[in-house]
Task: structure prediction
Amino acid sequence: MENSIRHMSLDPLPSATRGAARRKFWSTSLSLSPSTPKLFRLLCACTASLTEHCIDSKMAITRLACLLTLLTTHCYVSVLAVVLRTVNDSPWTDEFDRIELSCLIESISTTNPRIEWKKITSEGPSYVYYDRKISGALENRAVIREPATLLITNATRSDTAKYRCEVTAANDQKSFDEIVIDLVVRVKPVVPKCSVPKSVPFGKSAELTCVEEEGFPKSQYQWFKNREEIPDDPKTSLKFFNSSYTLNAETGTLKFVTVRKEDAGDYYCRAKNDAGYAECPAQNMEVYDIDVVGIILGVLVVVVVLLCITAGICCAYKRGFFSSQKQTGNNYKVPAKGDGVDYVRTDDEGDFRHKSSFVI
Result:
């Protein structure tokens, strides 16, 4: 650019030629690559809008000096600001593995900035790294990698939370910056608790349940019959096409609306998440027929037996087997004195009972 300016100032040109030269100069000067700093392109555009007399060599040199000054000032201000960035703001790891929470300092001028890490939970923030020491639940399980990255060497399910990296630079014009990282520690499911009925009558309903509460994220459930996965929709499989059931992968419940003979078999459940899966032992479910004829015959037998018992009791009463009184044939006794009163003695009472009386 300076060569072009020097050339134009040393070779006088006619006014018409000078105007064309000016246009050529500005078109050449403003043909900037995309990588040219935005501030530089902006200043060039502003300079191009000035009057044509600005093509004078002294004016061009003055503007170039201003441009360099502004660029230098811009770079100086950028250096005087602490700026942080992270490689991954949503990392995850499996339980008992290691995980790195990156906190990178892109620009800073302070020699020894203050670096802090905080764990943010529903109960509020708590220090993880303060005064150059690891504290709290991560003590002896984490270290700081220069300059500010937090490395957890043995992650547990309780480490699932948001973490905030804070850097304070006292000598910088922008003296504070922070980034938040959301950590998820995945936990493999344990063996689920399965409930399978041992026997179900044909045509009745049945419910199979599967529960697992340790895994994180929350487990999803699959059911298997004779080691073959049961589809969510029975109409999508030829083997289960005639079955009538509903399968809830969220709750682990398998409900048969009407059990068929073909539904008998060995059932087991699988609980799974991103960290792995676990299965319960297989349990057998039998389906038996209801013998309607046998039930009717059984009811008839019971009725006949009850009738026979009732008839026998009636006959016994009629024959006096259940009578509580016995007559001796000598119910009357002449009183010692002729007082005109008759008495009847009963065997049970052993005394006299008044029967009749009259007056002479």
Observations:
- Helices lie at 2-10, 15-29, 38-48, 57-79, 292-318.
